Amino acid sequence: MNNINRRINPFHIVTREDLINNTRAILARAGYSVSSPLNMRSVCFDIVGRKKDSLLIVKVLSNVDAFSRENADEMKILAEALGARPILIGERSSSGSLEPGIVYSRFNISIISNDTLADHLLDEIPPFIFAAPGGLYVKLDSDLLRHLRETRGLSLGTLAETAGVSRRTIQMYETGMSAMIDAAIRLEEFLNIPIIQPMDPFGYKNEDKSKEYEVSGDKRTDVQIFNLLLDLGCSVTPTIRSPFEALTRSEKMVILTGLGSEDDRLVHKASIVSDISRISGQHSVIIVEHKRNLDNIQSTAIVTKEEIKKMDDQSELKELVLERSGHDDRD
Q1: What is the pTM of this model?
Q2: Which region holds residue 15: left if phi is over 0, alpha if psi is between -120 and 50, else beta?
């Protein structure tokens, strides 16, 4: 096991910053392009990582009990808008340390330890166990289980007695129900063929959260600039726990949209947004009241509110963002 986190001095108190850096190191060694750590407790994620078509939005917490539903919802909004998968990396919960090889979950977002992340990405050892109310479970290859029972002439009763469950439970296993670890192991040993399936720790079932919070058409917000974007025909999803203020959709393009003034804070925000847009493969813009001679900060376009007021439709916004961000060759 590549236990990168165990290389930390054992006498050193492991901080959340240590955990974030450890997660970044694992992702980088696995070939992911990784954003700089945000290290901001008020945001819903700490890292964005991409490897080919796999984009991860990662939150890192020492105690996963601190993960709130509000943070989970915003992670889902970002993940669904950007085509990413949200995941929480943790060290412990109120029940104790997170065990290697086990996938936990909270608000339908997978939770794993850095040990499990390293095993999965660096040693190609996937987790097989997931925690759920009532204990620890595994996924069974239901089609293979049914095939083995039928071709070997085994009865439901025989498998039920072997596993220590009811015949009805065996039938449910054959239709996709998960199994308790002990029962699954007894079945696998009896059949002498692996029927326990590996887990995908990055698995996420789309909940369409982005549509729930998206503003479009004739709807209006309390933010004037957002309303100007809506007038152009864009849709806007305001964000609260992100380093930018909204996701703007314009002609099949997602724009990470920040609001700010031209000062040192603006430069810092634009640098963060540029880093995230680079990794996620999206575009970014910061809308300001007044602009001097600054068209962009890194890859983030700087656009004034007055410029947006003069636009007729969203195509003009798209063209200006592409031009100023230096990516006018993208579709």
Answers
A1: 0.90
A2: beta
